Every structure is written in structure tokens, then in C-alpha cells.
């Protein structure tokens, strides 16, 4: 909407109006439109609301709220006369400018319904802000212009808040978040060794079944889960999951014949079908087994859900992603902003290891991992840790080694019964929640993933990615590297080149 910045906004009956470009009079958000829940206001905001009623002596937040409630009752019964406005125009405008920045930042990350506490907080802040703005009696041209600018900003915030909440409500009820878990439900590794060792492994479940459980527990984000596997037992697992007392559907699809049906119109497709690595297997053998599955999935995705976001979990990720992407490219449906090789387990592991080394809460540590998803290609960027942490040379080397061999250690410890599944499913679920939140408009969602990227002449590379409503909206690259990290990137490049070349030779 284009606004014409009128020199003096019109205030009628406590409502503020401004002129739009086409000359129409447009009501700004007002205290009449919003509820100002006192519990949602900060101490400064409460102090202002009290000061305009002539109270400046109360100091604790709880007392401020109590006093305000009492004063409001008095005002309602007409037994209260407002004192003269106690603030200068300059003080009001400075406070409102700060408030405008604060509201904008909150709004940028807001994802939720009208019932959410974030919505109510923003609603209360906007009510407070527009009320305060309405009391400013600007006299100079400069002040009037500032008031108009703030008015426009608050009007836009109001519209954005409502439209985000509306969009959220609509997407929650219209099955917008269809996740097709294309994958390994109940399955043990398909290697004969694994099957021989435990024929009852169907009950253990792989990444797909655990992922589906975690998705099922988030009905506000995921409303329809479709699980596909070549094993018929997938139907039983889907039925089992559907008995969990959360809204949303879970359906099972089995075999090639039902793959198209499973994928039709999906919003997000998670591919973890195939063979998982066992102790005796090399990544090359794994590739031979899983490449044709990638090719088949790419063909069906191209036909049934070419707009979907595709998350590729199946190993070796460094080669499976190029097989998938190049197959789609051949079919003319490849969109590089939509296909991501999932490396989130590496990120979760490194933050856990860092936290344990430094005695921190692992949920509060983040560290990007770039390059690729294999022993010598994953490069954790310890220099970009959040919060910033200093590591000695020995600590750096220890962390690099620990995260790089973590997968192999799990494979060995599971003694032939597959690879990492539980931590993988957990990190994957949170990766998907991030994608869904970004899809619904949450700003500043940054993840790492292995994607089509030629910055290092390898065609594919894992980098930092900014996610948005339509997949990857910006490749954030690697950022500033330490000399140790740069050296590790140089070491990773020829290996990724070889992995991509393997994929391209398979496609040809
Ligand atoms: N990206 C990562 O960080 C990461 C981490 C761990 C594991 N993985 C990989 O994820 C994949 C799955 O691991 P898992 O432990 O769940 O394995 P799993 O053996 O438990 O499950 C794989 C499932 O895929 C099914 N499958 C095989 N071919 C299929 C096809 N054509 N269509 C549909 N389904 C098919 C199998 O029946 C089986 O149920 C493996 O390739 C593994 O190496 C990746």
C-alpha cells in the first residue's frame, strides 16, 4: 500500500486517520481496535501508561499492573480527571521510534495464530504505541512529519500482523504442510548381514518411523504425513502412528505402484529410503545401491510434486543429491532452491560436543558445518560458533575428529544393525520444522545443507542457507574462515569433486 505522508494526521474520537495516495481516509490501528493486555507490556511501557494518569511513584512491575487496573476502573466510572500530558514531544517521539524498531523486529520473526502469546504481545505493544502516538501534539513541520512516518509504520505493522496470523490459521487447517516421508519405516538395513542378525528388526524402526512420530507430535506445523516404503509393514506403522491423540492424518503407501499417490501435491518430501551404511560397507558401495532409488524418486517427484521442497537424507549425500538434481534437470523440472541434502545431524553433533567440552547448555550452542557430508568433507566452522567461543589448537583438532568419526562410531557400536537413526530423526524433524516456519513467513531462518553450488567449482557444496517461503532464498556462503578451516575446505574440494563426478557418470 502506498501512503501519502500527510503533514498532520487527523485524530477523531481517539482514532488516528491518515490519507492514502488515492485520497481515501484510512484508519490506523487504534486503542479501539486492539486490546492492550497489561501482562504483555514491558516496565517502560507500563511506566508511561501510569505517568499519563499522573502516577509516577510505583516501581515494581506487579504493582504497576495492579495500579493501572484500578486507575482504569476509576476512569471508566468517570471519577477520574486526566492530568496534563507529562512528556515533551521530543521524549515521546524518541520513545516511539525505539518502540517502532522493537515491534518490527518482533514482527519479522512472528509465526503464529491470533491466539498465540506472541500475537497478543504484539497487539498490546501496537495498542500502547498508537495510543501514545495519538497523544503527541506535534507543532513543528519536522515533528509532524515524524508523527506521520510512525503512523504509517504502525499501520503497516498492524496489517502485517493480521495477515501473518490469517495465513498461519489458513495453512494449519488446509493441509498445507503435507510431509511425505518417503522412507524407511520399520526397516533394518537391507544388507543381508543386518537381516540375518535380527529378523525381528521391523519393530525397531529406522529414521522414517521416528521422524514421522516427531512430526505427528507437531500438528500445528504438520497436518498430513504420508509414509512410503517398499515394505508393506509401512501401512502398519502408519496406522500405529495414527492412533496417537494428536490431530492430522498419517497414511501408509507401499511399493512402486503407490509412490505416485504418496507424492501427489506434497509440500515437503523427505527421502531416506534405501540402504543404510553398515560396518563393512564403503560409501561407494552404498552409492551403487542407493543411486537408482534417487533416480526413481526424482522422476516421480518431477511428475507429481515438482514444486515441493525435497530433503535428501539417504547416503552418500554428496553423490545422492547430484543424482537427484541432475535427473530432475534432465526432465526440465530442477529448481536449485528446493533441493537440500540434509546435514543437520553434523550440526547437532558438533554443538553437543562443543557444549560438553566447554560445560555449556547444548541447546544454546550453534555451529555451522559446511563442505559435504562424509568423513573428510564435513567442515565445522568453530570460528563461527554462537556464542563465540575460543578453542585451543588441540581442542579444535579434537572436535574436528570427534564430529567426523561420530557416524562411523555409531555404525560400529550398533554392530551391523544399521547406522545413526534416533539423533538423525530428531535433528531432521527440527530441520523440517524450520523449513515449515520459514514457509509460513518466519524471517531469518538459517540452516546448513548440501545444495547445488558452484562457488568452489564442485557444482555441489554444503553452505549456510537462508530459508524463506519458497525454499532457499539466499545462499549465505561460508563466511569468514580461520586458516585451519580454510585448509580443511581445500582438502574437502577434491573429494566432493570426485563424489559429484561419480554421480554424473551414473546419470550418463
Ligand atoms: N544425512 C544424514 O545425516 C544421515 C544420517 C543417518 C543416516 N542416513 C542415511 O539415511 C538412510 C536411511 O537410514 P535408516 O537407518 O532409516 O535405514 P533403514 O534401513 O532403517 O531404512 C531404510 C528403508 O528404506 C526402504 N527402502 C529401500 N528401498 C526403497 C525404495 N525404493 N522405496 C522406498 N523405500 C525403500 C527400506 O525398506 C527400509 O525400510 C540411509 O541411506 C542412511 O545412510 C543419513
Any overview of this molecule?
The chain folds into two domains: 10-172, no CATH class; 175-507, Alpha-Beta Complex (L-2-Hydroxyisocaproate Dehydrogenase, Chain A, domain 2), CATH 3.90.110.10. It has helices spanning 43-51, 61-76, 89-108, 117-134, 141-173, 192-197, 207-216, 233-242, 259-263, 283-304, 317-330, 344-358, 393-413, 422-439, 483-507, and strands at 10-12, 15-19, 25-27, 178-182, 224-229, 249-254, 268-271, 309-312, 339-341, 369-371, 378-380, 445-452, 460-468, 471-477. A six-stranded parallel β-sheet has the order 6-5-4-7-8-9, sandwiched between helices. Strand 5, helix 8 (233-242) and strand 6 (249-254) form a beta-alpha-beta unit. It contains 15 helices and 14 strands. The chain is of the alpha/beta class. It is 48% helix and 14% strand. The protein is elongated and about 85 Å long.
